[in-house]
Design goal:
Blueprint lengths: L2 H15 L7 E5 L6 H8 L8 E5 L3 H9 L5 E5 H9 L4 E10 L3 E5 L13 E4 L3 H14 L7 E4 L5 H6 L5 E5 L2 H7 L3 E5 L8 E7 L4 H20 L1 H8 L7 H7 L3 E3 L2 H7 L6 H15 L9 H4 L3 H6 L5
Parallel strand pairs: 1-2, 1-3, 6-7, 6-8
Antiparallel strand pairs: 3-10, 4-10, 4-11, 5-8, 5-9
Amino acid sequence: MTARHMLMFVWILLVGCQDSPPPPLRVGINPWVGYDPLVLAREQALVDAKQLQIIELHSNTESTRALRNGLLDAAALTLDEALRLADTGMALKIVAVLDASNGADAVLAGPDIASLTDLKGKRIALEKTALGALMLDRLLKAGGLNHDQVETLHVEAAIHADVLANGSADVVITFEPMKSRLLNLGFHSLLDSSQMPGEVVDVLVVQANIAPQRTAYLLQAWEHGLQALQANPERSAALLAVGTDLSREEYLDTLKGLYFVSLQDSARLLAGPPAPFIHDSVPLVDTLQQLGLLQKAPDWNALLDNRAALLALGRQP
């Protein structure tokens, strides 16, 4: 082997031994205004696509399936879905509290159903999720009905308007922006999440093996998007309303039905032990256990992790 070939061989070995950059963190979201700060961060180029991929899926169910199958590293989910995933033994971390619904989730019906007492014998469409089951339970209790006094139809939120329009369902359990679309079509609300304080909460979960240093970038992206939305809501709404069948003004109205949680508040809620978030979640956990949707109490110490939030805020965990 000549000296030149030797040098080439050594160079190839050195290049091969260098660490390649990690692939982008993949986070899944479904159509829900509470997750739109991440969409805004992506659309306004506030994130580096080499570090973070924000993947839009059709439903919460798709997000949980992709997370379970390892196709996602992280996902924005309702707390009930996150708890159910952990209950099955999946190793997850809740790394941020994103928002709380205060009217943005709702039960909608046509004019022939004027009150909750008219629900008997009706067909109710809902997603096959823990949140759907939770809201159905609240709806039936409010109307003094049992589960066997109504029919249920499991459909994804994207076709809620269709099943109402074609008569496949009389009532839907849905959320924004579908809620506003249906209100615009003449349907009306029978019950919404403002009557269920603290029970409809969204969180950000990551696979437990993802290092806090990588997750911190995701949380910074969320915070940048949230700050952009709050600093210029009109401009942001004009961008985010595209594809929702809502005007800019109607989109802004949807935001009145939820409360966004800042990264600083999220870090505080998850700090412990005991974390304040645990106390706030007790009524939801009790209900999920009563409905048979949770087999055991959550292991909050293993589940809650605010280290990435602290890193994103420039503080040491």
